[in-house]
Automatic annotation (TrEMBL), chains A, B:
Organism, as annotated: Cohnella abietis
SUPFAM superfamilies: Actin-like ATPase domain
This enzyme's EC code(s): 2.7.1.4
Family (UniProt): Belongs to the ROK (NagC/XylR) family.
UniProt KW keywords: ATP-binding, Carbohydrate metabolism, Kinase, Magnesium, Metal-binding, Nucleotide-binding, Transferase, Zinc
Reported cofactor(s): Mg(2+)
InterPro entries: ATPase_NBD (IPR043129), Carb_Metab_Reg_Kinase/Isom (IPR051804), ROK (IPR000600), ROK_cs (IPR049874)
CDD domains noted in UniProt: ASKHA_NBD_ROK_BsFRK-like
The protein's name: fructokinase
Reactions that this protein is recorded to catalyse: D-fructose + ATP = D-fructose 6-phosphate + ADP + H(+)
Pfam families according to UniProt: ROK
PROSITE patterns (UniProt xref): ROK
Amino acid sequence: MLIGAVEAGGTKFVCGVGNENGEILDRVSFPTEQPEKTLAQVVAYFKDKQIEALGIGSFGPINIDRESSEYGYVTTTPKPGWTNYPVLPELKKIFNIPLGWDTDVNAAALGEATWGAAKGSDSCLYYTIGTGVGVGVFAEGKLLHGLVHPEGGHVLTRRHPNDTYAGKCPYHGDCLEGMAAGPGIEERWGVKASELPQDHPAWEMEAFYIGQALASAILLLSPKKIILGGGVMHQLHLFPLIREQVRKNLNGYVASAAVEAGIDDYIVPPGLGDNAGLSGSIALGLKAYQEAQ
Amino acid sequence: MLIGAVEAGGTKFVCGVGNENGEILDRVSFPTEQPEKTLAQVVAYFKDKQIEALGIGSFGPINIDRESSEYGYVTTTPKPGWTNYPVLPELKKIFNIPLGWDTDVNAAALGEATWGAAKGSDSCLYYTIGTGVGVGVFAEGKLLHGLVHPEGGHVLTRRHPNDTYAGKCPYHGDCLEGMAAGPGIEERWGVKASELPQDHPAWEMEAFYIGQALASAILLLSPKKIILGGGVMHQLHLFPLIREQVRKNLNGYVASAAVEAGIDDYIVPPGLGDNAGLSGSIALGLKAYQEAQ
């Protein structure tokens, strides 16, 4: 069975074809331009692919409330042309197959829970830490939506005592995204994160913010696994620093070996690597197919 | 149909009998002593009540993992006699009816979603702010458990700039519970919270901490309603102060009228008042009964 997948990002779209085992058989990517042009490219790519379902994991914020008249829209994004654009309704006009729709990070969380680092689990958090910070929540076997959808990249964290940087978030200044996403790192230190050496104090500071946010997320959501993806997390040396901060912040309060002796297997990179987003969209498509049966 | 309910607190146990409409028909309460003695009182109370199901909302931490051999235990509580005590297994020996078991705050969240302020909704958070801070999470129509269960009272918040108080939490010092629960208020100001006048700066400070925690919870969990109960929240003048802090912290980022113009109907007292806990335990019993059918 062939399943189409769209990883709809604000910078680029990745389209692919996979199967019910999460294997990616083909892929293509192109820059995100005006929605009419970009969606035409999506349609052209899938036209002869004989897919039986299609999953779309999208940049946001998006409307994922199935009861809403604007279900399937990208909503308040500042991205020119995309504000209140009916992405899913437009695709529905073309594809008469089950369509799955969720945030890019919820898609990645579902992908990781289906085929990746949280395989078989009914619970995980997926963080992407790159040009921004996003969080997908899979809990009790369901992707969490609620009022809008999780936007956990913008939680408030305490300042590192040596940090004088104001923060990059246009809404909150020094929220997690403002302090820990790539643009903030670059502005604070004057070089790209990828160019900072491993012994640079930037990394201890980065782990300070991420570890704090994860500790609070563990307390509030009690996830069974936390997966950290995105460009910044390509710096694998961050993982031990983050785990140490999490343990320090929890300070033995959460009575589970997972966050103590087992923490190396609790806070982990994506099992699907950089395919987490695209594989997650396959998982969304598969879920839509199964729900339609 | 009669449903038994136990609100198992660390200080007192409340037992009651209700029906499938959430009406409380009878109740009794007694101090929490050694578990054998207290559970004997529970058994004696229900013995002739002809209940068809029993729900127990318990102080914690507790084991709510149905796959665990210690399912139904109170676990790492420091309360003498109760550490690793098999509350639910002991009750199962006596009551051959469906038994519901969850945290006191998850019970209250379910009660509020069934008959209270979030009636009919598939999503709410229930905070109790009293001698401690606890959080129950009802999301996508399910009570959230995960690795252990939510312990969102211990999230880390930023310090109020005028606050020099160290914090009361034995694990984290100045976490939310350490700063905003009753004992912290009393130690900081030298009088009980209930004796502080409405124009005392304590309340602005209290709202600062609670509002910050709620803003981060909204970002991470996107609940459809937030219900604030517990002794401290009897100070109803706190509600507008907290709502103002939430709006200030979110700063327009969450695109929903619920957290803007509609915030007075979004962050609210329990619809079930001080019965939220006991009614929630009725709801747990009802759910166990329905699952057993």
